[in-house]
């Protein structure tokens, strides 16, 4: 009996330690902890973070004010209208020019979960086309991104989309960012943005 209690206490302690390591990046109330790059619209409504195309329909980004190297990031998104967006890792900004890597968020058939290098090599890896059925357009989706050293893995609604090992990504330093694509007519909602540091 004592052994069972001890094991139970150890498991509880491990769970509490794990919970303490989790960082909430979006507080559901305002954009504290985030930096807006560009003129597109980012605002909070009913506890959700919303991005919308502005009048110019250009690229826009909302980045964390802190850099994160190795982590596991989990978030939920709902695409409305076009829904072309993305989640950037280890990224830096000069205006709306980004240096870093994007885990794609896009309408059906547009490679959600793939990894793209902006202003660089372009597509590094795309998911197998049959995995696209994991995307629920117009509904809430859960994306998980694990970044550790040169390795990046993405999951969409529990389905592993891609795994990539890339030396250049391994050397990257920067923020996490959400993107709104150019072209106009885009609206995406985000919520439950949680990060667990791995370093």
Low-confidence segments: none
The profile of the biggest β sheet is: 8 strands, antiparallel
Count of individual beta strands: 15
Report the span from N to C terminus: 37 Å
- Kindly report the average pLDDT value: 90
Signal peptide: 1-19
Keywords: Signal
Organism: Flagellimonas aurea
Domain 3-keto-alpha-glucoside-1,2-lyase/3-keto-2-hydroxy-glucal hydratase: 22-195
How would you summarize the topology of this molecule?
Elements: H1 2-21, E1 23-24, E2 34-37, E3 41-45, E4 48-52, E5 60-67, E6 71-81, E7 85-94, E8 97-105, E9 115-117, E10 122-125, E11 140-148, E12 151-156, E13 159-165, H2 167-170, E14 175-180, E15 186-197
Antiparallel strand pairs: 1-15, 2-5, 3-4, 4-15, 5-14, 6-11, 6-15, 7-8, 7-14, 8-9, 9-10, 11-12, 12-13
How would you characterize the overall build of this protein?
Helices cover 12% and strands 51% of the residues. It is mainly β and 199 residues long. Strands 1, 3, 4, 6, 11, 12, 13 and 15 form an 8-stranded antiparallel β-sheet that branches. It has a 7-stranded antiparallel β-sheet with strand order 2-5-14-7-8-9-10, with no helix packed on it. The longest helix is centred in the first third of the chain and has 20 residues. It is globular. The relative contact order is 0.25. The mean pLDDT is 90.
């Amino acid at each position: 009996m004592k052994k069972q209690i001890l094991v139970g206490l150890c498991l509880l302690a491990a769970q509490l330690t794990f919970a303490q390591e989790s960082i909430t990046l979006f507080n559901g109330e305002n954009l504290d902890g985030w930096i807006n790059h560009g003129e597109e619209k980012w605002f909070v409504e009913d506890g959700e973070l919303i991005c919308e195309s502005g009048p110019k329909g250009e690229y826009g980004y909302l980045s964390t004010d802190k850099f994160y190297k190795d982590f596991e990031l989990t978030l939920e998104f709902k695409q409305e209208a076009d829904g072309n967006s993305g989640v950037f890792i280890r990224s830096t900004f000069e205006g709306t020019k980004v240096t870093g890597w994007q885990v794609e968020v896009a309408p059906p058939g547009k490679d959600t979960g793939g990894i793209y290098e902006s202003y660089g090599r372009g597509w590094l890896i795309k998911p197998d086309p049959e995995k696209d059925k994991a995307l629920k357009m117009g509904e809430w989706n859960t994306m998980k991104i694990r970044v550790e050293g040169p390795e990046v893995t993405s999951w969409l609604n529990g389905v592993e989309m891609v795994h990539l090992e890339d030396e250049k990504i391994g050397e990257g330093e920067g923020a996490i960012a959400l993107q709104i694509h150019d072209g106009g007519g885009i609206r995406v909602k985000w919520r439950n943005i949680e990060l667990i540091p791995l370093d």
